[in-house]
């Protein structure tokens, strides 16, 4: 099995022993991304939607480094600490993606997330 590790300076550095993404068998598998601004290394302040938007910026940078993009995502997994943000998640997703051609998605409620944030998103995309 071939495996290519992806790292990009325009996305946060991993906080542990994992990589931002791995390409294998024609797919890019990203690590879960939280709303860390890669320039400051700190969580984005502001609204929940601002944090989800930053997560999409991070995912987009990683996917671009892997020579693909958000339009090639086949599956998102979203982790939320509060399901009342479901509607806000949908609004941000719709601003980044074509709703008519959206990939599969799961939303999972969790007790906690790294850096005490409230949202983490990972994805799987095809390589161009």
Helices and strands in order:
Elements: E1 4-6, E2 21-24, E3 27-30, E4 36-37, E5 42-43, H1 48-65, E6 73-80, H2 86-96, E7 104-109, E8 119-126
Parallel strand pairs: 6-7
Antiparallel strand pairs: 1-2, 2-3, 3-8, 4-5, 6-8
Helix pairs in contact: 1-2
Describe the structure.
- Helix 1 (48-65) packs across helix 2 (86-96).
- Strand 4 and strand 5 form a beta hairpin.
- The protein is globular, with a radius of gyration of 14 Å.
- The strands form 2 sheets. A 6-stranded mixed beta sheet has the order 1-2-3-8-6-7, covered by helices on one side. It has a two-stranded antiparallel ribbon with strand order 4-5.
- The mean pLDDT is 94.
- The protein has a single domain, classed as 2-Layer Sandwich (60s Ribosomal Protein L30, Chain: A), CATH 3.30.1330.40.
- It is built from 2 helices and 8 strands, in the order βββββαβαββ.
- By secondary structure, it is α+β, with helices and mostly antiparallel strands.
The fourth-level CATH homologous superfamily is RutC-like
Shape: globular
* CATH fold node name: 60s Ribosomal Protein L30, Chain: A
Runs with pLDDT <50, length 5+?
none
Percent strand: 25-35%
Tally of alpha and pi helices: 2
Which CATH first-tier class would you pick? Alpha Beta
Helix-strand pattern, N to C?
EEEEEHEHEE
What is the total tally of β strands? Answer: 8
Widest sheet: strand ordering:
1-2-3-8-6-7
Question: What is this entry, summarized?
Answer:
The protein contains two helices and eight strands, in the order E-E-E-E-E-H-E-H-E-E. It has 128 residues and is of the alpha+beta class.
